[in-house]
Design brief:
The protein is α/β, with parallel strands linked by helices. The protein has 22 helices and twelve strands. The chain has two domains: 94 residues, no CATH class; 482 residues, Spore Coat Polysaccharide Biosynthesis Protein SpsA, Chain A (Alpha-Beta Complex), CATH 3.90.550.
């Protein structure tokens, strides 16, 4: 240990630091890199000098090799890689502390070892392994889920006939609901009830669902018992966000040596790659460059990096995310308190809601989803459409599921269905992640179109074999899943159309519209109750996130639904023509006022006191 620390540290100091590292149950060499600021390269150079072995800053570029797909699951723990250099076998190694001790004994017994073993920094060895495993990693990213779920994968199931059939059915259902008042056909009432009324009933039921603690607030996990936590951060064209992102991820109240933060960057974003490299002197940070390959989606990038994770738990954050410092501790506590919970969704809170009408309505929508709807779904044991970020998994469970569907453009919602189909519990947590909503219409529309297209993908893929889905979910969850997704797709569209229809008929003075006309009554009740329930849910959600100052703008929700309705039609066109195309939402660094507002709002709820703990 003293050889690694250098002459500035005496034997007693070195022993004390070693004891601290051992108490944390992490590699002492990594502990030194994280806490003492010694670069990983310098640490390995000193280890090589102590062992009497050669050291290379990087693996020579004349080295070429490949890793078989069957070895991908071992990548995260590999410390040595044996390859052929010219006419001889050479092992490149980045040993941990105990590996270095073993090498010392082996080298003493076999002095010729220096001819076939070189030490390199851990990042250099990882870069070599990723490069050698590139083909296998890309193949795994695109095919693993399809192999695990041959009966429910977007790549296999979203054929052109399936997409067109879905589109025709969606248009037909919408047309029948809208035609019912015009035609006066009472046989359409059941369809009206299912597509228009039930989603509103579901929202009202969520409002009435009582809250309960997610876990015992008195439960405290000692710092030495906290596990290694892997954090995946997929990036593309986000060079401007990297500095803010590194600052926010550096503020976790969590042992620094137990954080594995992996920036997963598309190779088509050289500026972002360069921006991340400038922060790699922090030993918590790792860069994984994803080669350019179809589909160009976030879940494919996540699947590419998944074999490199070594934590007990793993979470995904986006470029604009600012998670609460206590989030990881809170999530670990909840996982530890209930071994049956396999996934936990943290709250997403919009930090720039006061910067315009559009972000204010977005903030209300998020508050309703993450503090009212999802906690209720967790309480009911329903299928939970996860948020695209701040969802935490047990790593073993995520790998068992096959990771994310690389071809689904809302991989989060799809993964929520897969968890439910395997009867794996999902819960929610009040720890927050702050992010900014789009402030301009164009990026908002592009993002919402992608989301809606992804919900269409999820609905079509999992309903491709409805009897199997029914068997997996059971009647209750099956029906709730149908109502939830259909409501997401059709409720804003239908409510907007009904409002326009009602205005038109009143202006025209149609003869069949009288005080006793059942369709008139149905339209009015649907609009009043539907919009009222949505506004009430937003208001309750904003109160729970401490953002009641945005309440007055929620009266404009009917106009917001008009925009969502237009996004739904755009999504349907993309679903048919470009099902796997990914719209990349542009992000901007959070304004200081937005950051303060978001942190203040998000901290309004006590951490861990949830409104639904998962069933």
């Amino acid at each position: 240990m003293q050889a690694v620390l250098g002459p500035a540290f005496g034997a007693q100091e070195a022993q004390a630091l070693l004891d601290r590292a051992m108490a944390s149950e992490v590699d002492p060499l990594h502990w030194c890199a994280v806490h003492l600021g010694i670069s990983q390269s310098e640490i390995m150079r000193r280890v090589a000098d102590w062992l009497g072995l050669a050291f290379y800053e990087v693996v020579p570029r004349l080295v070429t090799t490949e890793i078989a797909p069957t070895r991908l699951e071992t990548l995260a723990e590999m410390r040595m890689f044996r390859i052929k250099v010219l006419d001889r076998d050479v092992a490149f190694a980045a040993p941990d502390f105990f590996g270095a001790m073993r090498l010392k004994r082996v080298y003493a017994a076999n002095p010729s070892l220096h001819q076939s073993l070189c030490l390199v920094p851990a990042p250099a060895l990882r870069e070599l392994m990723v490069d050698a495993a590139q083909e296998a990693l890309i193949d795994g990213a695109r095919q693993t889920l399809s192999r695990s779920w041959p009966h429910a994968a977007a790549q296999l199931d979203l054929t052109r006939p399936v997409r067109w059939s879905f589109a025709i059915m969606l248009v037909l259902a919408t047309g029948l609901v809208l035609a019912a008042p015009l035609s006066g056909q009472y046989w359409l009432l059941p369809l009206w009830f299912v597509l228009v009324v039930l989603p509103t009933v579901l929202r009202l039921a969520a409002l009435l669902t009582p809250s309960r603690p997610a876990f015992d607030p008195d439960l405290v996990i000692e710092e030495t018992d906290l596990p290694v936590y892997s954090i995946l951060v997929p990036l593309r064209d986000e060079a401007n966000m990297v500095d803010q992102l590194c600052r926010s991820l550096g503020q976790f109240d969590y042992p620094r040596e137990k954080l594995q933060i992996i920036f997963v960057v598309e190779s088509r974003s050289p500026e972002t790659v360069a921006a991340v490299r400038r922060h790699l002197d922090d030993a918590r940070f790792t860069l994984v460059v994803v080669p350019d390959a179809m589909p160009r989606t976030k879940p494919k990038a996540l699947d590419f990096a998944l074999p490199l994770c070594r934590g007990e738990f793993v979470v995904v954050y986006d470029a604009e995310d600012i998670p609460g410092p206590d989030q990881l501790r809170s999530i670990v506590t909840q996982f530890r308190s209930d071994d049956e919970v396999q996934c936990i969704q943290s709250r997403l809170v919009i930090g720039n809601g006061r910067f315009g009408v559009l972000p204010a309505l977005f903030a209300g929508e998020y508050a309703a989803l993450f503090t009212v709807m999802l906690p209720a779904f967790a309480r009911w044991g329903a299928v939970m459409p996860l948020g695209g970020t701040s969802n935490h998994f047990r790593l073993a469970t995520l790998r068992h599921l096959g990771g994310w569907d690389a071809y689904n453009v809302t991989e989060d919602a799809d993964l929520g269905v897969r968890l439910a189909r395997r009867n794996l519990r999902t819960a929610t947590n009040t720890s927050f992640t702050m992010e900014d909503a789009p402030t301009a219409l164009a990026p908002w529309m592009g993002q919402r179109t992608r989301w809606t297209k992804g919900w269409m993908q999820t609905f079509a893929v999992h309903n491709r074999r409805p009897l199997r889905l029914l068997k997996d979910l059971g009647w209750r969850r099956f029906l709730l899943f149908q109502i939830t997704i259909v409501g997401m797709l059709l409720a804003p569209l239908l409510h907007t159309a009904l409002a326009l229809f009602l205005v038109w008929t009143l202006v025209e003075g149609r003869a069949f519209i009288t005080g006793h006309d059942p369709w008139l009554i149905a339209c009015i009740v649907t609009l009043v109750v539907g919009h009222g329930a949505a506004i009430a849910t937003n208001l309750v959600g904003l109160a729970r996130t401490g953002q009641s100052g945005l309440a007055s703008k929620q009266i404009l929700l009917p106009l917001y639904w008009l925009l969502i309705g237009w996004a739904t039609w755009r999504a349907l066109g993309e679903f048919v023509r470009h099902p796997f195309r990914w719209f990349k939402t542009p992000h901007e660094v959070s304004a200081p006022g937005a950051a303060r507002s978001g942190r203040s709002a998000a901290s309004a709820a006590p951490v861990g006191a949830d409104h639904g703990g998962g069933v």
